[in-house]
Amino acid sequence: MTLRKDDAVFAALFVVPAGFALGQVVAPDAAVYAAGPGPAVSMWVAALTKLLLLGLAAVLSHRSARGLASAHDRVASAWQRLALGWLLYFVGQLCLAWYQLVKATNAPFPSIADAFFLGAYPFFFASLVGFLRGYRDAGFAVDTVSAQGRLAAWVSAACLAVAVPLLQPTAVAPTRAVETALNLAYPVLDLGLVVPVVLLVRMTHAFRGGAVARVWASVLAGFAFLCAGDILFAYFSALGRVGLDPYVHATYILAYGLVADGARRQRALLAG
Amino acid sequence: MEGFLTTPPPGTEAVVEALTRTLTPYIGPNMARSAVQSQRERLGIEGAAITPEQIEGLIVKVGHGLNVFLGRERAAGVIDEMRRSLSALEAP
Q1: A116 Cα to chain B: minimum distance (Å)
Q2: Could you write out the DSSP letters of every residue in B1-44?
Q3: Which of A192, A255, B20, B71 fits a disulfide with A226 by CB distance 3.0 to 4.6 angstroms?
Q4: B16-29 tens-digit pLDDT
Q5: Residue A152: which domain range?
Q6: Closest to A135 (Cβ–Cβ): which among B23, B68, B72?
Q7: Domain locations in chain B?
Q8: Contacts with A137 from chain B: Cβ below 8 Å
Q9: Which of A263, A259, A182, A178 minimizes the C-alpha distance to A220?
Q10: Can you give the pTM of this predicted structure?
């Protein structure tokens, strides 16, 4: 199987289920939905796809870490932290699947799953910062440390400027305090990830045209979709728009699929 | 590298071009050129002429930088690839 065919097959793993989820709201009268699977089947598809992709993201990131262990400690550790973050997400998703698939009901919010999802963020942040430092050590920095600091400050200010109006409806929504806190926590934590993500986007741009750029384009696009998914979830949850869940499912499926794809590409780079 | 023992080594620009071409599939043309030029400066390689020892030093430095993306084994393979691409170069 050529690499291009591998790429297409792997992309189908997450693009097809994401399209299937989106189709429910975009074209609910389409034959595939009208005559075929009901919401329960759609839930099964979404939940199992997320588990599969999160499992792949964790395993492939771990294997990338092992492959780089003798080559560069800092970058190997960064891949390992990414693997731990996705492992926590996998466990969180497993908790949700217990409600969705075994008990055939909507998962409560908040639930024990949120502890795992929130626990992943320190690993994600440490991982992304670790990549930046590791690539700088190896001589692949695209900016000086002070230029990166200035860019980080600008991005932080922009995130703050965007976050205040964006999250205002969620903050004032008539939900329980713990629910509101969590609906705000996820997007805020995501915005915290935006700073290292933007710095890595600059690095990725410098690598354009090479295999390394394709690894990072996938990983960073995955984090962008994760951020979008959390914001959508916060909106729909705070506004009680349960019927729009397929949008959230599709966004998370794309996020997990893209990150797993990036880890797969890194693994392929190591394997040769 | 064996070829350089009997024939004059290629010029610096030709070496930089050949190494950049070999690195491009991995790190893209811009970063490849930048990495080769930066290692060339670090090694103090100036002017149009370059010695076989300087070429080998440049190959090893540039190749080891790839460890961070490709791992040791694969980067060693790219180092061999760079040596082969330079052996194929004709003397100026």
Answers
A1: 30
A2: -GGGGTSPPPPHHHHHHHHHHHHHHHHHHHHHHHHHHHHHHHTT
A3: A255
A4: 999 999 999 999 99
A5: 3-271
A6: B68
A7: 2-87
A8: 68
A9: A259
A10: 0.89
